[in-house]
Write a structure and sequence with these properties.
Butyryl-Coa Dehydrogenase, subunit A, domain 1; Butyryl-CoA Dehydrogenase, subunit A, domain 3; single chain; Butyryl-CoA Dehydrogenase, subunit A, domain 2; globular; 13 helices; 7-stranded mixed sheet; alpha+beta
Length: 406
């Protein structure tokens, strides 16, 4: 599709519009900026469109202008955006507003105004990379955090820190564990370091952020991770929604690869290419494609089923049961691992035609291998899940091996 002025493309605005329709309305604009994204640049018109359409406000409560999306519909939107472009799909769930639900409407509005009219938060929650010293009215924080996706266009930044005394010794709680806190600060108070030069997801702007001896007032600090949500409704009781985004994102990448392979099989064979002539017609290809297809369908079904069950439970109970949290985790790990396997099968079948930079299957291969290397989605992530199911009926409760995710 030729686009003379991609910045003028009409996109669907959020509200009562189905989320899938929002994603599809953005497709022409996203594809028009595909090259810039693969070069590591995030075009401002695309950021504006994602914000105005509601993608970057999908997980925010209605009181602050968010969509407060139904979780399965949100997962479908993320999958569709990732099918169109994996970097955009990644930003769509990372920047959905899920990390801002601890802000009540009054604080949200103050932070929005301080951010120039938008509240877009980029942060790293996986690394205690900062040191925070308690002072009157807040903390003085120094640190450098990697993988801050969306930081080039965020209006606020944040990261996890260990609380220390003025001499740098960690402060411990009653259980002897180091105290930790999440702090956020206006983006113009930090340094952005362009360190993101990864294999895939190149258009996510996942570079480092750094602050040095920055005073962060108490109202911008929450202990733990997100802090308690300011809105006690079903959507905000599901703390695993960022994980759901990961799973849906992976499914979208795999769907793009499968679609591209079907298109290649049905194209007129290239002159002299015996491999292209045989592509998709060999029994080995037919078996491999079916395996890839069923893996993605099964992963999608399990993910949506698990999310629906969690959402229904969250409507009736203030906190999800451990069983449902484990099943959500299991569904998301399976979705990411299944997507990686499916893309690998497609990449191998496509042969040398898939190795050229910029082709859909090549892009999918780079993107899914980057996404699946996230520590929460390695094969070892199954350990805690398996440990739970093996010991859940044991007297004294289940044992949870590995990372203390649950």
């Amino acid at each position: 599709m030729a686009i003379s002025n991609p910045d003028a493309i009409e996109v669907t605005r959020g509200g009562d519009v189905p989320l899938l329709d929002i994603a599809r309305s953005l497709e022409p604009l996203i594809r028009a900026h595909a090259q810039a994204l693969d070069e590591g640049r995030i075009p401002p018109p695309l950021v504006e469109a994602l914000y105005d359409a509601g993608v970057f406000k999908a997980m925010l409560p209605r009181e602050v202008g968010g969509l407060e999306a139904e979780p399965v519909q949100w997962a479908q939107m993320i999958e569709e955006l990732a099918r169109i472009n994996a970097s955009v799909g990644w930003l769509a769930f990372i920047q959905s507003g899920v990390g801002l639900t601890f802000l009540d409407p009054e604080r949200f509005e103050r932070f929005r105004v301080r951010g120039g009219g938008r509240l877009i938060l980029a942060m790293n929650l996986g690394r205690m990379a900062g040191k925070a010293v308690r002072v009157e009215g807040g903390y003085r924080i120094s640190g450098r955090w990697p993988f801050a996706s969306g930081s080039p266009f965020a209006t606020w930044l944040g990261g996890m820190s260990v609380v220390t005394d003025s001499g740098g010794t960690p402060v411990v709680d009653a259980a002897g564990q180091p105290q930790r806190l999440l702090a956020i600060w206006p983006a113009d108070q930090a340094r952005l370091l362009d360190t993101w030069d990864g294999l895939g997801l190149r258009g996510t702007g996942s570079g480092d952020i750094e602050i040095s001896d920055l005073f962060v007032p108490d109202e911008q600090v929450n202990p733990g991770f997100y802090g308690a949500p300011a809105y006690d409704r079903a959507l905000f009781r599901i703390k695993e929604m960022p994980e759901v985004g990961h799973g849906a994102h992976a499914l979208g990448i795999a769907s793009a690869a499968l679609e591209s392979f079907v298109d290649a099989v049905n194209m007129k064979p290239l002159p002299g290419s015996t491999r292209h002539l045989a592509m998709g017609h060999m029994q080995a290809h037919q078996i491999a494609f079916a395996r890839a297809d069923v893996a993605i369908r099964a992963a999608r079904a399990l993910l949506h089923e698990s999310v629906r069950a969690a959402y229904e439970d969250a409507k009736a109970h203030p906190e999800l049961s451990l069983e449902l949290r484990v099943r959500l985790r299991e569904a998301n790990v399976f979705a990411v691992r299944a997507a990686k396997e499916a893309v690998g099968l497609i990449f191998e079948m496509a042969g040398s035609s898939a190795v050229y930079r910029g082709r859909v299957i090549e892009q999918a291969f780079r993107d899914i291998n980057t996404a699946a290397n996230h520590t929460n989605y390695m094969e070892t992530a199954y350990a805690a899940i398996g440990s739970y199911f093996l010991t859940r009926d044991r007297a004294g409760g289940p044992e949870i091996a590995g990372r203390p995710f649950f």
